[in-house]
Design a protein that fits this description.
alpha/beta, 19 helices, 50% helix
């Protein structure tokens, strides 16, 4: 049993790393910003142990508040973030929270006073103070947001929208390595019609080993950030059989509401909890009508723009619940050949005679990716 409510980027462990002065903003602006980022499915790092763990991210948001420069920890963190910007292409977004950007740039006001205090206390390490000054000047020259005279909730929404749009343009995962996956994703996205604000349910149907779960996962990774909440529940039929319906509902709601410790004594109303929320749900390997009845019911259970994707081997199950479905096609001969080539090269054991066997493998596998993979691994073994 497994589920995922946020994806991890191939370029980093987190989408966003937040740098801030705790005493200034941890209980107000930064807390609200963090919540909004998480609500939009943006995997955000916020913790005390930032320098060691938080730098593996695509974006760093720096909340420059009036006491930011008084912390040597924050200044060291800023230096490290800017180093990551140079060496790894990490994107840095400064927020000037109730401070004048020119004060940050020229170290005036409280920023100047804080640096003067550091100079007084670090007379034997003045080079480090100069590095901090240079970092403040550099970050102040970056494009960001000035919070002064701004409506704070609207500003936070603007920042999150900006980050989300940038993330949506970054290729997520390894779908380019999955043979034939892009064309299949395009077909399903056309049926999902993501621009529409109605609620849609789409089935992904095919025999075992055809790649339904792989396709659903790749699609989920590409579109999940367009939703307020999202959840991918793997092998949901097995979860139902092993854990029962109440536990399945608990897992389902926990992932979408981001509440780990839901205490459910009995079945609850999914509609009551999610009817106003735009969600993306993937239910993998649905094999029991009870799952439909108790998890996804009708379209009015979910907020406008929601999308429900169901993978199943039983076409009749989808039809009986009025779910339009996409039939996953088998790999054609060209795709099958590329599949074999990719998996053999990955193991660095490609030999000339192996490719001579590819035609036989393709014939035996009948376009099933799982069967082809078994043949390739058997040969490599």
């Amino acid at each position: 049993m497994a589920f995922a409510s946020s994806s991890t980027s191939s370029q980093g462990s987190y989408d966003v790393f937040l740098s801030f002065r705790g005493e200034d903003t941890c209980n107000n602006f930064t807390a609200h910003l963090y919540k909004e980022l998480r609500t939009k499915g943006i995997n955000t790092f916020i913790d005390d142990d930032k320098l060691e763990r938080g730098q593996n991210s695509m974006f760093s948001i720096i909340v420059l508040s009036e006491n930011y420069a008084s912390s040597k920890w924050c200044l060291e963190e800023l230096v490290k973030i800017l180093e990551c910007m140079k060496t790894r292409g990490e994107r840095v977004l400064p927020i000037f929270y109730n401070v004048d950007p020119s004060d940050v740039k020229k170290q005036r006001g409280k920023f100047g006073a804080a640096l003067a205090e550091h100079e007084k206390n670090l007379t034997e390490n003045m080079e480090r103070v100069q590095i901090w000054k240079d970092a403040l000047t550099q970050v102040a020259n970056l494009s960001g947001w000035d919070s002064r005279n701004k409506n704070e909730p609207l500003l936070i929404k603007e920042i999150v929208k900006h980050v989300l749009n940038k993330l949506l343009n970054i290729c997520i995962g390894d779908t380019e390595k999955l043979v034939g996956i892009d064309a299949r994703i395009r077909e399903i996205k056309m049926r999902l019609c993501l621009e529409s604000d109605d609620v849609r349910m789409i089935g992904i149907w095919g025999m075992g080993g055809i790649g339904k779960t792989t396709l659903a996962r790749a699609l989920y990774n590409k579109i999940s950030r367009q939703f307020e909440a999202h959840s991918f529940l793997e092998d949901v039929g097995k979860v139902l059989a092993n854990e029962g319906l109440i536990k399945l509902q608990q897992i389902f709601l926990s992932s979408l509401l981001e509440e780990k410790d839901l205490n459910m004594k009995g079945l609850t109303s999914i509609k009551a909890r999610l009817h106003s929320k735009k969600v993306l749900v993937v239910l993998d390997n649905v094999n029991d009508p009870t799952i439909f009845e108790c998890l996804i019911g009708n379209q009015d259970w979910f907020g406008r723009g929601s999308r429900i994707i169901i993978t199943a081997r039983d076409k009749c199950l989808l039809i009986s619940h009025g779910v339009d479905y996409y039939e996953v096609p088998k790999l054609n001969s060209g795709e099958a050949y590329e599949f074999i080539k990719h998996h053999s090269l990955k193991h660095e054991l490609l030999r000339g005679d192996f490719m001579e066997l590819s035609t036989s493998m393709i014939g035996y596998a009948q376009g099933l990716p799982l069967a082809l993979k078994v043949f390739v691994l058997f040969y490599l073994a």
